[in-house]
Automatic annotation (TrEMBL):
InterPro entries: DNA_methylase_N6_adenine_CS, RlmKL-like_Mtase, RlmKL-like_Mtase_CS, RlmL_1st, SAM-dependent_MTases_sf, THUMP_dom
Ranges for domain THUMP: 52-164
This protein's UniProt keywords: Methyltransferase, RNA-binding, Transferase
Source lineage: Bacteria, Bacillati, Cyanobacteriota, Cyanophyceae, Synechococcales
The protein's name: RNA methyltransferase
Organism: Cyanobium usitatum str. Tous
Keyword RNA-binding assigned: yes
Keyword match Transferase: yes
Length: 388
């Protein structure tokens, strides 16, 4: 059985990430100081220290959640789960009776095929142990617990972790307004990372919607740390190191700048949206994110889009008939988009998120890369086209 304490020099963690972004997330975690970043399915395992774990919450753009692994133990039955939980760690340190908690479970083991039942077993093990030790027990709070415990079952093993994030980390806090089918912020950040854009060449979105792709790109290029505007569950953990946390907050805040790291000016970031109400949302979101001056957003149809002097990178998340719009009605949009790109964007790269191969065919362009991505449960491809 392995036990990890958050005041130790080595913390084992799991970053839960959007499917398809595991490699990009591993690279991001490594750049933020993690060691041994290993890709899993929809997750990345990593090693860091307490300062690094705090840093990830403030600066990592791609994870949904960051889990601190407390213990692993054999689990091939509900009784092994119950006993293993009670012996996993010193629960008097983590969960005194006055603290509230919740349990979430994934995976399965013999006799533990339903996540709700598995979570209930963990809850029972903890409150029974508390009653034995103190004659009192913690309350379950599903909405705002002091401690959020995560159980994963698989391969005859149970892994118990603490969720340091609380709510999903894709919520940056700037997007009070959004279009009909918005990308989650962390997925948008990951898509931009996959393009390799670094702010040195123009970036344009001729169908920008409420602006998430462009806003995430600008925040990345200008060093706006995504976690500074919110609170995290780990701030309520026992023995939370507030001094170290403030040190990491200051370091994250100091990254913000008005130019690229080299000192050069940020290249133009241009968006176009034909719906005035949605364009207003994009302006509001950019203002809330603190990067409105870096974006050039205009009202108009993508068919009339003229890019800034290039070469540069086009990014696009057009509707693909799963959530908004009908497929027959969308085919002319794709055809016109492809025509506009070929006529006006020679020398540029186009990256387009597609959830419908039939519609993408209307572009009459051949993709050089097809990266599988899941967008809200829809099987998509992040398609790369070199425009000649």
């Amino acid at each position: 059985m392995g036990i990890t304490e958050p005041n130790s020099t080595s913390i084992s963690g799991i970053a839960v990430v959007p499917p398809g972004l595991e490699e990009a997330a591993a690279a991001e975690l490594t750049a933020l100081g993690c060691q041994a970043a290993a890709r899993l399915r929809r997750a990345v395992r990593f090693q860091t220290d307490l300062a690094g774990f705090y840093r990830l919450h403030l600066q990592a753009r791609l994870p949904f959640r960051l889990l601190l692994e407390l213990a692993q133990f054999p689990c091939r039955s509900k009784d092994e789960l119950y006993d293993g939980v009670q012996r996993a760690v010193d629960w008097s340190r983590w969960l005194p009776p006055g603290a509230t908690f919740r349990v979430d479970a994934t995976g399965s083991a013999p006799g533990l095929n339903h996540s709700h039942y598995s979570a209930l077993q963990v809850k029972n093990a903890l409150v029974d142990l508390q009653r034995q030790q103190w004659g009192a027990r913690s309350s379950v709070d599903l909405d705002d617990p002091d401690l959020s415990i995560h159980l994963h079952l698989g391969g005859g093993e149970a892994a118990l972790s603490l969720d340091g994030s609380g709510g999903s980390m894709h919520r940056r806090g700037y997007r009070a307004a959004m279009g009909l089918a918005p990308l989650k912020e962390n997925l948008a950040a990951g898509l931009i990372a996959l393009t390799g854009w670094d702010g040195s060449v123009p970036l344009a979105d001729p169908l920008c919607g409420s602006g998430t792709l462009l806003i995430e790109a600008a925040c990345m290029a200008l060093g706006r740390a995504p976690g500074l505007g919110r609170r995290f569950a780990l701030e309520r953990w026992p023995k939370f190191d507030s001094q170290l946390w403030q040190q990491e907050r200051r370091a994250a805040s100091s990254l913000a700048r008005e130019t690229l790291p080299s000192g050069e000016a940020l290249a133009p970031i241009v968006g176009r949206e034909q719906d005035p109400g949605v364009l207003d949302q994009a302006h509001s979101n950019a203002e809330a994110a603190g990067i409105a001056s870096a974006l050039e957003l205009s009202l108009g149809d993508c068919r009339d889009f003229v890019p800034p002097p290039g070469p540069g990178i086009l990014v696009c998340n057009p509707p693909y008939g799963e959530r908004i719009g009908e497929r027959d009605a969308l085919e002319p949009l794709y055809a016109d988009l492809g025509r506009m790109v070929k006529e006006r964007c020679g020398g540029w790269s186009l990256w387009l998120l597609s959830g419908n191969p039939e519609l993408t065919g209307a572009l009459k362009m051949k993709a050089s890369r097809r990266i599988p991505i899941s967008n809200g449960g829809i099987d998509c491809r992040w398609l790369h086209y070199e425009v000649r």
